[in-house]
Every structure is written in structure tokens, then in C-alpha cells.
Amino acid sequence: MVVKLIVYVGVSLVVICTPGPDTALTVRNAFAGGRRSGVWTAAGVAIGQLVWTVAASLGIAGVIRASEPVFVTMKLLGAGYLVYLGIQSLLAARRAGTEPGATGPAPRTGAVRSLRQGLLNDLANPKMAAFFVSLLPQFAPASGHALPTMLGLGAIFSTLTFAWLALYSLAVDKLRRVFSRARVRRAIDAVAGTVLIGFGVRLAVSN
């Protein structure tokens, strides 16, 4: 069991450290609203993963994965949400370019808004359902302890995700203090918006 746990943590770290929509959103919010905004976004992502963990453990995520209409609908909604966030970021970049004398850090983003964005960004991605359905059972025993084990493994994954994204937020916050000019902020908003839209399009067209 110890060996399985070590392998699971290793696999989880590889997946978590690979940049994706959750990372892009956390970086964007951390740069736009500071460390607090990034950490709250990370918390929302982690809560979303806990929801998917429970859904996978109870078999709900498997139903979503097996039902093509539900999966496709969720995929399109998730893609639409990513594109929406990307457009918001592009509009923020455009506004920053028209504001005279805009220097210094961007205004803080509310904690509730950041938490909600992180949560919805994760829940709206049906690939998370497929991921947890595929990963958790491989490391859970076949006995009656499968459910609590899967819940525990999902909690580990969510905790590691939160820690990684929170570290991202701290690093981005440091950069935010250095690169506080409006031109740099505008460029980063534009890049973040483009990346989020790209993730949305990729999610929409993926099988």
C-alpha cells in the first residue's frame, strides 16, 4: 500500500505540475489581483477537485463519462466558460491600454469572485470526471475499503493541487510587484486571455 501511495503521489505531481486551464486562470488572477486572489482561485480549484472525487467515488462521474450527450454538453459549457474568462482578460488588457497614467498593481480581485472562478473552471471541465474515474480506482483496493480510499486519494490530489497553485500565486505576486507598469500588465492580460481562449477551443474540439 505504501508503494502504491508513493506511485500515486508521483503520478499526481506530474499531472498537477503540467500547466492547464486551472494553472492559466490562477496565474491570470494572481497577476491581476495579487497573491490573495491567486490563492482563493487555487482554493476554488481544489474544492472542485474534491467534488469530482466524491462524484467519482460514488459512480456519478462514471455516468457523466459514459453518457455522450451529458459529456458533450458539459464540455461545451466548460469551453464556453474558458472563452468567456479569456475575453474578460483581453478586455482588461484593452482597458489598461486606454487608461492614461495607469501604473502600479491592478486593483484587487474579490476573494469570493476568485473562489467562484476557480471552482467553476474545474467543475466545468468534464475531462476531470474522466481523469478521476480512470486514476482513483487503479490505486484503491478491490475490497470494501475502496470508497474511503478513493476519497482519501482524491483529498491528497486536491491538497497537492492547492499547494502547487498557491506557490504559483506567490511567485506571480512577486513578479507583479516588479512588473507593475501598465504596458507589462496589458501584455500579460492579453497573453492570459489568449491562452484561456486557446484552452477553451481545445476543450471544445477534443474527443
From TrEMBL:
Signal peptide: none annotated. It is found in: Cell membrane. The keyword DNA-binding does not apply. It comes from the Bacteria. InterPro entries: LeuE-type. It holds the Pfam family LysE. Keywords: Cell membrane, Membrane, Transmembrane, Transmembrane helix. It is a multi-pass membrane protein. The keyword Membrane applies. The chain crosses the membrane at residues 6-27, 39-64, 70-87, 146-167, 187-205. This is LysE family translocator. It comes from Micromonospora zhanjiangensis.
